[in-house]
């Protein structure tokens, strides 16, 4: 079987920056085992797969599939995940730029709930759930793996959120990946107030086969409500200061977070399974 493959650098306008995601459009689902094999072979932080939806009822949500355009799933090299921002942007970019999708908004059904991506001038605007962190003490083993002594705030949503004292402290972190994988079964977001933006962050998920993710949209579902409260502002500028780096505009509206960014195509091709 031959399938199309696209690789998109997300949350950037520069090739080789931002966060690369693979996108594999499907006409029907392959087995979960095949999906995971493809994601492992791609060896990127995420591979997105989507199939067109027909008007069938959804018992879980009460929605019908007619409310959506596509069913979207995301896989790391080792696991399926429930929400991924950069690969959602990459999937929408692929539909708009390569597959002739003519609407201004694409609607995805996903494990993370209903998601929409809208063309907004030169940017893509992602409508995602807000996932504010609940305060909880961070285990000492996580701090030790990160090489830090203390944090200004620690909490959890899906992921750990740790607030450090400065952008430079975040930038200088050199985690022990093996120790962090053992200490944290969930991803760890580290963040601080930014010097040239509202806040900066890094994202570590060695337990999911991703030591450091370059630019993580889903992390900003937690970062945005935290910093909106800390800075008393609902529109925020953000930078993820990984080696590749990326920039986002984040807006908090009630229980939703809007993330704006751009993408650029790195490759188009075919895979054989």
TrEMBL record:
NCBIfam families: PhzF_family. Keywords: Isomerase. GO terms for molecular function: isomerase activity. It comes from the Bacteria. The keyword Magnesium does not apply. InterPro entries: Phenazine_PhzF-like. Belongs to the PhzF family. This is PhzF family phenazine biosynthesis protein. Pfam families: PhzC-PhzF (PF02567). The keyword Isomerase applies. The active site is at residue 46. It comes from Pseudomaricurvus hydrocarbonicus. GO terms for cellular component: cytoplasm.
